[in-house]
Amino acid sequence: MGRNGRVGLLLAAIAAIATAAPATAAVISAEGKHGLVTLRTGTEGGDCLQEGSQLVCTDGDRVATASLERGCTKAEGGALCEITMGRHVVTPQDGLEIECESGAKKGYVYLLTDSDGRALCVQNYDGYGNVNGGICFKGRETCTSLNCDHGCEGASLNCGCHIKSRPRQTVSTSD
Description:
By secondary structure, the chain is mainly β.
């Protein structure tokens, strides 16, 4: 069998495998201390599993891990980790809107952004479950972060942190 025959046979095998079973995205969800934790590879394949309180999704270089006690612990290569807590959904798509629920910046709303859509952004919580900041990662690098005591703490790698709105100020007058 010549080269063209082997290439044709390989393409036929790939087509047969692709049509044999519909592709499904690798996703896993479990209820955690801070809400529903969901991991996704972000592709049509990969594997997800739960071992005790640890969740893991992988597909090649795409890796997401989470602890049901601590929340999202890692997301690399485009894999995603989401925490749904009440009406708060943490996702990295077009930026993450964070309203500080504690700290000196309580009531401020910040927007963490990523201009090329490759970062993973998550909210941070204090011991009482209040949002006290956020952070965006690209691979192992932090590209922007927010601390609700001090505000934005820097940005790099095409990520940004911006004040979206401030709490309403009350002004009083005295005679």
